[in-house]
Amino acid sequence: MLSYALRTLTRMALTFFAIVTIVFFATRLSGDAIDYVVGEGITSEDRALLIEYYDLDKPLFSQYLAFLHAFTDGQFGLSFIERRPVSEIVVERLWPSAQLLLPAMALTLLVSIPLGIAAAIWRKSWVGSAVMAVAFLGYAVPNFVLAIVMMLVFSYWLNWLPVVGNGTALHFIMPTVAMAGVLIAALTRFTRNAMLDVLGQDFMRTARAKGLPEARVIVKHGLRNAGITILSVIGLQVAGLAAAGSVVIESIFAWPGIGDLLVSSALRRDYPVLQFGVLTVALAVIVINAAVDLAYAWADPRLRHTVKA
Amino acid sequence: MLRLLLSTALAAGLATGLAAQEITVGAANVSSYLDPGRDHSNVGSQFYYNSFDTLIDRNHDTLEADWQPALATEWKLVDPKTMELKLREGVTFHNGEPMTADDVVFSLNRMYQATFPPYVVRSRDRLGNFVKAEKIDDLTVRISVEKEEPLWNTLLNLQQVMIIPEDYTKGLTGDPKVAEDDDFEAFSLAPVGTGPYRVAEFIPGERLVWERFDNFWGEKAPLARATVQQIPETASRVTALKTGEADIITNIAPDHLAMIEADQNLRTVGSATPLFHVMIMNANHPKLQDPRIRQAMSLAIDRDTLNEALWLGKAVVPSTHTYKEFGALYMPELTTFEYNPEKAKKLLTEAGYDGFEITFDTHPTYYTNGLLAAQAITEMWKEVGINGRVNIAEKWSGGSPDLMARNWSNPMYFADPFGSFGVMWAPNGPSEGEGRFNTDEEYAAIWERFRFSKDVEARKAAYAELMERIKQDPPVLPLYRPFESWAMRKDVSWAPKPGHIPYVLDFRAGSISFASN
């Protein structure tokens, strides 16, 4: 178990370093910060002055080294636009994002696991078909479409729900649902498939043959085994989808989270903020993946033993 | 959970019983910093007039320059190159400090003798003639210029020379006796001025809250509190207005107007913004050096059709680089730019145009209707035989030697030809500095007469000569003044005022009121 954990951690660190490097160079491919920070249409003399002031005159590689070095002071450099520590700007945005993400994840689990199980058990009846039809539809509708349609219906027409920011409990409803929509669709399908794999296994027949009640067979023997697959899907796919979703949903609902920050700093070419923001999201996904990996090993004794061997 | 529900109910109750003295503005953009000195962005200009004052103000209800005393009560030239100003007594900054001559001298010299790079840049393109400000006594300052200045009032009314407190600013970081770069950076996140609203809360790029400043020297502000909330998505802004979360929203594209006006509780106001969307052409591109080619590129464009198709006819197409805001210097009689496809074809033949491709660069979204206009322009070029291609790129190409043509904007930074054409197309100015426009001694001499003649007629005559030079060897074509709209609840009475620069959200006394009051 320990060496498995160590390996996981090493992989995490390497992944993080690769992301740091890719993020640094990819942001710089997306356009020239100088145009946005310095402004267009100024004399070349003035341009040179501002380029120097913002430290954009250094060669790319030494900017990269400075960027790596900035990790050591805990501030991660200054925003080009706001001129305050990047860490401060990003940290302000973490809690609102978490406030949106956690209810969305909870809603996803609460809805999609029962639905997925139902779709697996009653796969041949109309229940299974209906669930899968809705899940496919949900997967096909992009979250921004869902968000805008909800906004049109519940705010624009009915005037029931507010659309801007995170001021009250009512503000949480549409963004949470819009975030959870695609996650529910994805996880319902995975849960169904995982359950189907398990349902045909010998140990399920054995459990039934022992005379256990059907509900107990499904939950104790079925879900616990399917759970391992579901867990890894949550780690690998759902976390990624949620991170991408927050970028879109937060912009639409003017939600002051990290996704909104990423969009605005990308538009303003505020590289230091953009880099650190992307890294934070990446780190969150890596940590979730690693946590799932470890939980996976814990939940599946076979894996533990294979690694040891 | 109970607390959450209670606070929701409370918030909903407050929203319905909304006091008319508090409003929320849903803005497409909220600035990342607030410092009137370094800023000349369209986003920034929304916010300064409520919180800051200049020495000399103007009546914003009229297009004609009608100068009003503000932080200075009197001003006169004591010699041709020195102005003496008497300061208003009893003016207080939002932090409680009294305003003195020291603050004024500090504010002005941070621009006139700038060392902080963002100030240096802003100062050079418009305040280059200003040498220094000096204190004479606690309520008297003198300002000196290098050459006799015909635009004294205009250039003392600029956003860039709004007055900020000296001690407060210097004390923000480092040594409290010295103005360091970091002081100015810190100021831009915690701005303090003398205007009728103080900045009570500022979250960069997200929210700005103004509160009425009770010690304001002038007429009391009509609103107790105004919140500007950034709502980047147009659909969300419109919905927020509809749900009552916002009372006024900014930056409504023409295609959303009908939807808003269909609601009887809402209304829109709009104006052709004092800013030109322009096409620039690179006079130094090897294939475009013959001015006849660039003349043809310009003559082929039917700007009235662009206006009808893209702006529902609400934009304003100019005959020359001029704005009615210039007052006495408004010169619509000049015809510098026109649509004449026949002449375009003839010029192309004369210039021996062989069908080489001419690219028109545009950012995909930066200018409203920018991409559509670019596509229409290349189609119009095709009509006269120009082989045009739209090149969509995020990167600013205005300084690239490969540039052929692209879109850009020339805002009116202040109401004088010097404040729009003058800033961008001066000898050694930004356009020449980027290598796509050339001037010579003759142009510089005309420019000098335009900039510094004291007689308005002499300035107009010189400007007409500059326009003739632009017509003969064109680096630019102003397409139109885009139509910009705001929407609000029907009982809110607010509209952009004609005497302001673009986008100012003026909530001072006399500028906003409520029908129910």
From TrEMBL, chain A:
InterPro entries: MetI-like (IPR000515), MetI-like_sf (IPR035906)
Transmembrane as UniProt keyword: yes
Record Pfam families: BPD_transp_1
A single GO cellular-component term on record: plasma membrane
CDD domains: TM_PBP2
Swiss-Prot/TrEMBL GO biological process terms: transmembrane transport
All copies of domain ABC transmembrane type-1, residue ranges: 94-292
Subcellular location(s) per record: Cell membrane
Membrane protein topology class: Multi-pass membrane protein
Main subcellular location of this protein, as a coarse class: membrane
Descriptive protein name: ABC transporter permease
Naturally occurring in which organism (per UniProt): Sagittula salina
TrEMBL record, chain B:
GO process annotations (BP): peptide transport
Family to which the UniProt record says this protein belongs: Belongs to the bacterial solute-binding protein 5 family.
Limits of the Solute-binding protein family domain: 67-418
Keywords assigned: Signal
Location(s) in or outside the cell: Periplasm
Matches recorded under PANTHER family: D,D-DIPEPTIDE-BINDING PERIPLASMIC PROTEIN DDPA-RELATED, PERIPLASMIC BINDING COMPONENT OF ABC TRANSPORTER
GO molecular function, one term: peptide transmembrane transporter activity
Record protein name field: ABC transporter substrate-binding protein
Gene Ontology cellular component terms for the protein in this record: ATP-binding cassette (ABC) transporter complex; outer membrane-bounded periplasmic space
CDD domains documented for this protein: PBP2_NikA_DppA_OppA_like_10
Pfam families: SBP_bac_5
Signal peptide span: 1-20
Main localization of the protein described in the UniProt heading: periplasm
InterPro entries: Peptide/Ni-bd, SBP_5, SBP_5_dom
Species of origin: Sagittula salina
